[in-house]
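L-ornithine N(5)-monooxygenase
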Amino acid sequence: MQVHDLIGIGFGPSNVALAIALEEQNHGGQALSTVFLEKQPAFSWHQDMLLDNAHMQISFLKDLATLRNPSSRFTFINYLHEKGRLQDFINLKTFFPSRHEFHDYLAWAASHFEDRCAYGEEVVEVVPEVQNGQVALLRVRSRTRDGELRERLGRNLVVGVGGTPNIPEVFAPLRGSPRVFHSSRYLRSISEHAQPRRIAVIGAGQSSAELFMDLHGRYPSTRIDLIMRGHAIRPSDNSPFVNEVFNAEFVDHVYHRPDHERDAMLRSYWHANYSAPDLAIIETIFNVCYEQRVRGEERHRILRRHEVLGARDLGGSIRLELQDLDAGPEASHANQSNEYDLVVLGTGYERRQHRDLLASLAPWVGEIAVDRNYRVSTPAEFRPGIFLQGACESSHGLSDTLLSVTAVRTGEITAALSPAPLGNVPPAPLGNHGPSRRNVAYAARI
Ligand SMILES: Cc1cc2nc3c(=O)[nH]c(=O)nc-3n(C[C@H](O)[C@H](O)[C@H](O)COP(=O)(O)OP(=O)(O)OC[C@H]3O[C@@H](n4cnc5c(N)ncnc54)[C@H](O)[C@@H]3O)c2cc1C
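Structure:
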């Protein structure tokens, strides 16, 4: 069996950017044998949320390459140039392309690496290859769409699998119901419903706000409740000083803080990324609700400070038991029970798939800890390098799950694979940038 220098799991923006960095930094002309395994049948970036009117929440300059190598041919600007739209894009006068256009850019970039991506293969397990008491290689097992199991051997692994839909416990029994679905399945699921009368959207982040507006435009007479725990839909703070937390240099700052300081920092900036839609869409939602009041047709409701206590499938509808968190327990309206034709979950993502995939390596890896270059800390007798993309928010900061540092991070990972990645991977560096005890402890949550 061929031994690959590098196996990438997932071929989303993170690993596409890595493919670009590997090509451009290319280890002094020594081409690595690389393969990326992607479970989707073709490149696709959050396809079920490619809503009309949805725009990027990040500048196009934070594309797959610019911040690492502005002269790369894989920049968004070069994409526009090759597509013949550069001047027209300039006339748009925006830093924030539509998500449709950015998807097209990402797919264009990915298309240059078809020869090293196996689409339609889901990685199910990574197991150690032990030789003479050492873990020499990693065996990566994947399943094709036809159910066939495949195996590959690699000297290095980069896990870039993104998030997994977060389904709150209360909705767990309704998994599989066509009437309850997560935003990650939105477009394919909503197309199955012709004219729902009443819809609940759960959550108050960017996705929920976009879902609310999309549903409002899609169904002119449907009633929509946006159900949220918070007091108000709060905007993301993208003012320039706050935005510095998404700068590449800020990763150093976050990574080298003591645990308690890093924790506090993540908490204090949490709203810069989570549960915080753009101000423009909040204003649009407010305007829609206001106009409905003017016309005396209050179809939609923003149910703030409401908790979903229970959810039952009644066959033809879903019943939600709601608690008004601001009403005292004695208040007659503290609990209400509403029926909906559809419930759409804008409840975000969790990032733990890498732990499941690497579970067989636990005797060597223990609690996963990463060094500054995203390399998982392993003992000397474990030779392969394992790198994580997008799973290091707790150690590297809020930018980790976004596109903000992708270009720079892949340059760092590519450099960390040098100078001796091929067949003789040194143990995880424990020098200045190595995982201190502090980070090992902290990394329990990675
Ligand atoms: C609707 C939406 C809009 C967003 N907009 C922005 C934005 O404007 N700006 C921003 O900075 N961030 C945005 N984000 C955040 C998002 O995380 C990043 O844009 C980006 O997708 C991260 O890239 P990734 O490659 O790390 O993860 P992903 O894009 O999630 O890619 C992971 C890939 O791995 C594949 N995969 C997963 N498990 C396996 C497996 N076991 N085997 C094989 N393949 C697997 C998946 O199919 C997927 O293709 C958005 C997220 C969402 C959901």
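The chain has 15 helices and 19 strands.
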